[in-house]
User: What shape does this take?
Amino acid sequence: MSWARDGWLIEGGPSGYLDTEPTVTRLVEQAGLETEQLRARPAASRRFIYQRQRLHEIGPNLLKPVRSGLLGVAGVLRVFAEPAIRRRLDAGEESVWEFCRRRLGRQVADRIVRPAMLGIFAGDAERLSVDACFPALRRLEQEHGSILRGVMARRRAKADTNDPPRSRKLTSFRRGLQQLPRSLARDPQIDVRTGLQVTGIRAVPETTAGAPEQGRRYVLDLEGAGHLSADAIVIASPVQVSARLLHSLAPEAATLLAQVPVPPVVVVALGFSPTAARAFPQGFGMLVSRGEGVRMLGCLWESRIYPERSPDDHLLARAMFGGRLDPTALELEDTELVALARRELRSTLGIGEAPVLSRVVRWNHAIPQYEIGHVQIRQRVEHLLEALPGVYLAGDALEGVSFAKAAASGIRQGKRAVGYLRSVQRQREE
Ligand SMILES: Cc1cc2nc3c(=O)[nH]c(=O)nc-3n(C[C@H](O)[C@H](O)[C@H](O)COP(=O)(O)OP(=O)(O)OC[C@H]3O[C@@H](n4cnc5c(N)ncnc54)[C@H](O)[C@@H]3O)c2cc1C
Assistant: This one.
């Protein structure tokens, strides 16, 4: 969902994705969008954390947070001691904060990981599960006994194979991320219907007179638009909607999905004149630590990432509020939110000038939280759905929270659905 006028393009939700999923890259090619892609400017690799009343640059290595004073000497020495920390043998899930505190030390866990989890997931680092959110980190510990040793070993293995390095480019499209689904929907071979709400899904046994049940079909109830009959369905709605839709088909799976917390997020987009734009640093944006008297979770400097998002020399900033630790931010009026964002941009970055444009986008249920217990939810739901022929669950409910991961999961589940349809077809022909 995006809004465009007079050279501005404001994304209401995601604004870019890391092109780490080869299936999504192929999908972009199929959609004919390679020439429409925007790549993040190199300067967008600079990222900041607002902490102890000032901006600290972080990454790409430990020198930045040390130079900026975000980490003290003890904090850095503790990171280098990571290979000496024994691996955890307990198989239970662990929070992202606890995992990072145990392996990398408290300074990293408190000063970098906490605000980063708020920025990425609008989530609470003490509740998010490292096993569900970052399974690769857990694997490094399990397989190599240490994150640092594991990273080095993987680099060496990659160098030996001469494989090209995996792409991790932050990418978007000229007319926003919506360009991908919109382009795909124009395929004349596909019947795409939009603007319809599925309100329920029922399974109908398929029988011929006197014969036992031969299979099943599904009937989708559409709000104000009758029904749709299908041999297979891929449910790719937000997790709380998917839970409702699955209720009559797989009640236990529905109950489990309904337990996934999905806190609200409010996006406050502000457009600034060239004079005010100059006061924004070069970089991707900033995360804000809690306890600074600032309610904003973070702010993306969109035009620093993709200059095409605003008219020449202007700057589009998107401030985020709400999330798992501050859900009541959603209760503020639009004018209060804009005033709050302006006040906090003044106190953090010294931006005093009034914006030339503002827009507020509300997400009542923004980002599913993969908290402790999510791995079990995922495994159980996947197991229960295995027993439901022709029903597939895609999107960010289980397989990863991001545009690319959700798209990749749609492709994966779509392929499974096609495989199932072929087998149904074969059975009918026999
Ligand atoms: C403010 C914000 C910023 C974000 N920024 C980023 C970012 O920069 N990069 C990134 O990678 N990720 C980002 N994310 C996360 C990313 O948006 C999600 O992970 C991704 O969109 C999930 O895709 P999805 O297809 O699972 O769900 P959605 O994108 O939520 O799509 C679900 C679809 O289901 C439809 N639907 C809902 N109910 C029904 C129904 N009853 N019947 C039929 N259809 C229905 C909806 O209309 C919608 O089209 C952000 C999220 C938010 C909220």
The chain has 16 helices and 17 strands. The CA atoms of residues 263 and 323 lie 5 Å apart. The mean pLDDT is 94. The first helix runs from residue 22 to 30.
